[in-house]
Design brief:
heterodimer; A: alpha+beta; Aldehyde Oxidoreductase, domain 3; about 30% helix; B: alpha+beta; Ubiquitin-like (UB roll); DNA polymerase, domain 1; five-stranded mixed beta sheet; about 35% helix; about 15% strand
């Protein structure tokens, strides 16, 4: 049967051109800011100019008097009407912190919203913000987590002693003994700057009042429609069935649009109270201060090893500057807990100890961003492994090879309690080295410096836990275990199949992937399958798109639902064609007997099922709509090994990436060209993380990088051509899929950082702070004295 | 100075006469007054390139251009790239076939910039393509697929580019 079933061309594994890209390429995309409703008002927010201050007074009178202004809302007016954000309970929480949607007594970061102004147009709303007079009583600020955790430091939240929003200590294995008995111990420090996702489209929403049958309809640029609906209901004290959340085309997410923020909730409240639709669209300056930041870590780590390069134990101390609030939904634990907890990555490490802290400061809150925690975890360890290799005079790739979890040792439970299975760490490294002509590159590097530049080669391996099921928490320490999602497949009366899911795409072509999977499972033509993915009124329940989960959970649910639907179709077809079910198959959207003697199209089947139901026994016509949930239970490890080659100009400190090879294991591939785009796009963001992107604050907590002229993201000139290769192995999840949206940024930061460090080591220098700006590179070369630890 | 001013502007071959606030950007004019929302706003300070349009035959940042500056001008936006029969512009087709867009937010500016490049230089090298597009930020793709799309479009070359510029100007 299985042969017959797949006798049509397999569509999974084919780079089909996604229909969903057509409106985008033709200028017909419908993004949030493109939505206009009749009678719609516009909202602008007045934001704090101070990093930490008591609010003495807010005088809104002049703003209210401005022609065109409808309402000026303050935080006090919201008290008792809506529920503020209380930090999500976390096992490792340092205390509860409360974030009002509009600041009430205190402001805690520059950019925190204080007032919302509603006006007939956005320009008037912004004019009115300028007319509001806020009296600030400045308080001492915290801008450094290592100072902020000290006794006596100013407190950001009175409830959180030492400004700990998160703190966790962990040990497994006999770490002390291994450090004592090892042949050598290597230490290093690592710093990574604060950055942000920088979606090209900022956040925003349109809140509609009594659109269709819903009291509140929220169009929102976001990744998690049902989660938004749930929390809107809770905080606005409504029934969630009165709320509809719709996600229009979204101009980038990368995790920044997976958190819950005050502004959209304020807009929902305004639409309900004004009984009019309102719109707010974040401008770029707002985006730089009011959408979550990421990273901003300082790490001290050490490893114990034998003289053959085998790592025996790993110990780390992690400080994360998590900003002023525990980002709603995910808590402040994302970066601190994942950085320390996932540091062992793809390596066999049997003894692990860490202490990690998320310290509140007077900066914008940090939240999830592509590959949360793992880039700095991997990068700090990869740089430490390079230091180990130098001490032992071994090749850095060889040291990695000796420590990677080999396939024949799997399943392998590491010291962080994660089980590695169905993943190709060693094959990825072997492939990357072969494709990079690694040994030749090393020989060339030793031979002679070119044009006065310093040539560096960096090798990095990583593991990326994707597609988490219910037994592995996405937000460590929190109650959130979103490891389950649903997909509905429905054969419409004309024979078109609709695949519906609450899995919005920000460019991942998720629904094209779901269509490809349904096509193979059902034996349908791809062009006969359509999709809906962005609307709580039409999609079954799901958590949304984040954590490299969608290809795994969405596909699994699509497979389950399609198999059940196929069974229903064949059961009814057996009656219609008067044949045994076993003699039937579906090929190219037509049900036929295996001997091809009888056929009936799916369109005819659907029409009969719906319009001629009286002719068919009820038990044989169960309806051609199936919803299935899928929970992969565990996560699926994806992997990669990257080799970056850089030229460092010792005069200017400028780093140029001259060659970049990536070998990845992303499991069974659904649409190769889409996957390639995800991986290369992640590497590009890693180029930014390694060399360019940093959000800078001064000692008063004032942001210095609030435009794209100050905050540098890679252009087409900084991102090299990526040579991408695959060493895929299927996961244990249904279909063998793994997530691929995030992992490559881990390899990119690590490989580029290692390459720069490698180059500087040619001159006895090194680098500890990233991004590797020209200034830091020159520092690393000794132009400005630095204090290396090892 | 008057708060409003009348302008006459030809967009994608159609002429509009409108009275607009003098502080209105060309981007907001196109989007809010003409409902041509294909032009996207990414930074409103001229860096990201998402709002790039064709103004009198050259690319311009519509977020840094005031609507009143476009008085008497000819503007082409992404909505004007398709042929009258709806056929995609060859550059649009190349972007689609090369998977050169993910979220699609930068795409309108990328397309217009790429078309201008091939008008000026029908056979660019990869580096020349990268330089020409370096003022347009794409946060999703890593640029590679976009570069490949433009190089392939150049290869297919022929008269498509000149055709497009004259046709769209006159339409």
């Amino acid at each position: 049967m299985s042969d017959a079933r797949f006798s049509n061309r397999k569509i999974v594994g084919t780079s089909v051109i996604p229909d969903e890209a057509i409106p985008l390429v033709e200028g017909d995309g419908r993004f949030l800011n493109d939505i206009k409703l009749p009678g719609m008002y516009h909202v602008a927010f007045l934001r704090s100019q101070h990093a930490h201050a008591k609010l003495k007074s807010i005088d809104t009178e002049n703003a209210r008097k401005l022609t065109g202004v409808i309402k000026v809302l303050t935080g006090r007016e919201l008290l008792g009407k809506v529920d503020p954000f209380r930090s999500m309970p976390n096992r490792f929480s340092g205390g509860e912190s409360v974030q009002h949607w509009l600041a009430v007594e205190k402001v805690r970061f520059v950019g925190e919203a204080i007032c919302a102004v509603v006006a007939e147009d956005r320009a008037t709303a912004e004019d009115a913000c300028d007319l509001i007079n806020v009296g600030y009583d400045p308080l001492p600020v915290v801008t450094d987590p290592r100072l902020g955790e000290k006794d006596g430091a100013p407190l950001i939240h009175d409830t959180c002693t030492n400004n700990y929003l998160i703190k966790r200590e962990y040990q497994r294995g006999d770490v002390d003994e291994k450090f004592k008995s090892a042949d050598l111990v290597v230490k290093r420090r690592f710093k990574i700057g604060r950055k942000q996702a920088l979606c090209l489209e900022g956040r925003g929403c349109v809140a509609g009042y009594r659109e269709n049958t819903f009291t509140l309809t929220l169009w929102m640029s976001h990744q998690l429609p049902y989660v938004v609906r749930h929390y809107l209901a809770r905080h606005l004290r409504m029934a969630e069935t009165d709320i509809r959340v719709i996600i229009p085309h979204t101009g980038g997410g990368f995790g920044q649009k997976a958190s819950i923020y005050p502004e959209e909730f304020v807009c929902a409240h305004l639409a309900l109270t004004l009984r009019r639709p309102v719109k707010w669209v974040e401008d770029r300056v707002e985006n730089m201060v009011a959408s979550t930041h990421a990273r901003d870590q300082y790490i001290e780590l050490s490893l114990a090893a034998n003289s053959d390069g085998r790592i025996l134990a790993l110990s780390s101390d992690v400080w994360v500057d998590v900003g002023a609030y525990s980002t709603y939904l995910w808590s402040a634990g994302m970066e601190p807990l994942q950085t320390a907890g996932l540091m062992p990555g793809p390596y066999r490490i049997d003894a692990l100890r860490y202490c990690t802290r998320g310290v509140a400061t007077n900066k914008t809150p940090t939240g999830p961003y592509r590959a949360v925690g793992r880039p700095s975890a991997a990068c700090s360890l990869e740089l430490l492994i390079d230091a180990l290799a130098r001490k032992l005079e071994l090749d850095p790739a060889e040291v990695r090879m000796r420590n990677l979890i080999p396939n024949d040792a799997m399943p392998y439970r590491n010291a962080n309690n994660l089980v590695h299975e169905n993943v190709n760490y060693v094959p990825c490294l072997e492939l990357a080295m072969a494709k990079a002509s690694y040994q030749a590159q090393r020989a060339e590097q030793r031979a002679a410096p070119l044009n006065g530049k310093l040539r560096g080669v960096g090798v990095a391996c990583f593991a990326e836990l994707t597609g988490l099921g219910t037994s592995t928490a996405v937000g460590p320490g929190t109650l959130l275990q979103p490891g389950r999602d649903a997909v509905t497949v429905r054969l419409e009366t004309t024979g078109v199949l609709t695949v519906a899911a609450a899995l919005p795409s920000q460019g991942q072509r998720i629904m094209t992937a779901m269509r490809q999977i349904a096509a193979d499972e059902l034996g349908m033509k791809l062009e006969d399958i359509t999709s809906i993915s962005n609307d709580t009124a039409t999609a079954p329940y799901g958590f949304g798109t984040f954590a490299s989960r969608t290809a795994v959970l969405g596909s699994g649910a699509t497979i389950k639902a399609s198999r059940e639907l196929r069974q229903r179709i064949l059961t009814m077809a057996a009656f219609v064609l008067q044949e045994a079910v076993e003699q039937l198959t579906i090929v190219d959207s037509v049900v036929r007997t295996l001997d091809r003697s009888k056929t009936i199209t799916l369109a005819a089947m659907a029409e009969k099922s719906f319009f001629s139901a009286k002719d068919i026994p009820q038990e044989l016509n169960q309806g051609f709509e199936v919803t299935a949930f899928y929970d992969p239970k565990f996560g699926s490890f994806a992997a990669g090994a990257h080799v970056a080659t850089v030229d460092v100009d010792p005069k200017t400190g400028l780093v140029e990436i001259v060659r970049y090879i990536a070998a990845e294991d992303v499991g069974t591939v659904i649409n190769p060209a889409v996957v390639e785009g995800q991986i290369i796009g992640g590497i590009a963001q890693g180029v930014g993380e390694a060399l360019l992107e940093e959000l800078v604050y001064d000692e008063n907590g004032q942001p210095r990088t609030v435009t794209l002229a100050d905050y540098l993201v890679p252009s087409a000139l900084e991102v090299p051509r990526i040579e991408l290769h695959h060493a895929n192995t299927p996961s244990a999840a249904l279909g063998g899929f793994k997530g691929c949206g995030e992992g490559s940024i881990i390899g990119a930061l690590s490989a580029i950082a290692c390459a720069v460090s490698d180059a500087l080591n040619l001159k006895g220098g090194d680098i500890y702070d990233f991004p590797a700006s020209p200034e830091r590179v020159l520092r690393g070369l000794g132009v400005i004295p630095s204090e290396p630890m090892d | 100075m008057a708060r409003e001013q009348s302008i006459k502007v030809t967009v994608n071959g159609r002429t509009y006469e409108k009275t607009v606030p003098v502080r209105l950007s060309l981007a907001d004019f196109l989007r809010d007054h003409l409902h041509l929302t294909g032009t996207h706003i990414g930074c409103e300070h001229g860096v990201c390139g998402a709002c790039t349009i064709m103004l009198n035959g050259r690319t311009a940042r519509s977020c840094l251009t005031l609507a009143v500056q476009a008085d008497d001008a000819k503007v082409i936006t992404i909505e004007g790239l398709r042929a009258e029969d709806g056929t995609r512009h060859p550059m649009q087709q190349m972007f689609l076939e090369n998977f050169a867009l993910q979220c699609g937010y930068c795409t309108p500016g990328m397309l217009v910039t790429a078309i201008e490049l091939l008008q000026d230089n029908p056979n660019p090298s990869e580096l020349e393509v990268r330089e020409a597009l370096s003022g347009n930020i794409c946060r999703c793709s890593g640029y590679q697929a976009i570069i490949d799309a433009v190089l392939e479009a150049a290869q297919q070359g022929n008269a498509a580019w000149t055709d497009w510029s004259t046709r769209s100007q006159e339409r």
